[in-house]
Amino acid sequence: MSPEVQKIANNHLRMQAERLFGAKITEITPVSGGGNNRIFKMLVGGGCFALKVYPSCQDDDRDRLGVEFEGLQFLRAHGVKSVPQPINRDNLARLGI
Predict the structure, then answer these.
(1) What count of Cα atoms within 13 Å lies in the side-chain half-sphere of residue 42?
(2) pLDDT tens, 51-74?
(3) DSSP 86
(4) Neighbours of 22 (CB within 10 A)
(5) What is the distance between the alpha carbons of residues 2 and 87, in angstroms, rounded to a whole number?
(6) Are 26 and 46 in contact (CB under 8 A)?
(7) Among 41, 46, 74, 96, which residue's beta carbon has the most beta carbons within 10 A?
């Protein structure tokens, strides 16, 4: 991907993340790892958050975002605080914070 195309993609991702989070993002940087998804570190105000981008797989109809997000909600609701707190998700864009 050319640097120009990468810049456009990064700006689009930032706009989607700001819409989903509901606040201006100070910084967004990719984090290595992530297996079948891409993870970004977001700085928002005084906080640090993770943005996950889930792949679109034509031959895999599993709802990876929904399963992870709802699993984290379930655990937090039942007193497990050692897991990330799910903030928001966009199923169409395949993004989770």
Answers:
(1) 26
(2) 999 887 677 778 889 999 999 999
(3) P
(4) 10
(5) 32
(6) no
(7) 96
